[in-house]
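Chapter review: from sequence to fold.
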Amino acid sequence: MATSLKSMAADSCWPGVKKTDLFRVDPKLIDEEEGFNLRNYEDPDVIEQIEGFADSYAKGRYVPPLVVRTTVDGRIVPVEGHCRRRGALLAIERGAELAYVDCVSFRGGDTEQIQVMLRSSEGLKLKPLEVAMGYLRLSRMGHTNAAIADSMRKTAARVEQMLLLATANHDVHELVQANAVTANVAIEAVREYRENAGAFLRGKLEEAKGQGKVKVTRGVITGPRLPPKVLTTVVGSLEAIVSRLDSPTRRKLAEFERLEPDQLAGKKIEVDAAALLELVKAQSAVDEVKAKRDAAAAVAAAKASQQNFLDGQE
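The token string follows.
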């Protein structure tokens, strides 16, 4: 009776178990194809990931196999597992005895290589800008947005957004890479401001820093929203004051609409006192929220300024 996967694969009674090829390769023989991998090797998260692999290799822990292919000139290059390769080389550089790493052979064409890299669930996920650049590669190879969306299990609309980010100016890419602007905010800025998106986002970043923040989020762009309870009070007060305007007052307002702003100076209408009082109270609630936010922003800005000072002393 078969008692291992190896014996099961060799036994015709187990048609559901097949042997596949797992190769052991000297990591020094694996040569990274320049420009293929989408990762930013200067990203602290990527550096940490490589360090983690180096530690695992050095201590003999299990590391998933690399997916590699051979080129026409006999080189072995990774399709998936670039960080593992670098981790292995780093472990060797630090004195680890690592004669080989496990590899499986890739089968597929250029398109499948990019798709494997984008879909990879092993290790560190690609950052949004890196994903966007991968979609751009596929697009330039002739794949439609719909085809990319289908292969990546995304919507065509999301692919279009990511391509917009991928083709944005370098200053926008720098802000996204530095984690100073979220990808979605950058996409919205590029869609609205095109070539001027970078300048717009840099201005918003300065505005965010003035509020004690380090990143441009949608909240920085649109401004803070009122709490639901206060917003309901404001809307209700406006509805009340408008609904209580009588017919003569509405006719007078219609006449006022045709006047220029300077012609409205000194014009008056009568409104229901109770409705107006509700509106004044609603404004007080808005002022209270604003005062609390301004105070919190001032404290955050002071802390950020103090931290910047301390960092400069190091």
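Two observations follow directly from the output. The longest strand covers residues 66-70. DSSP finds 14 helices and four strands in the chain.
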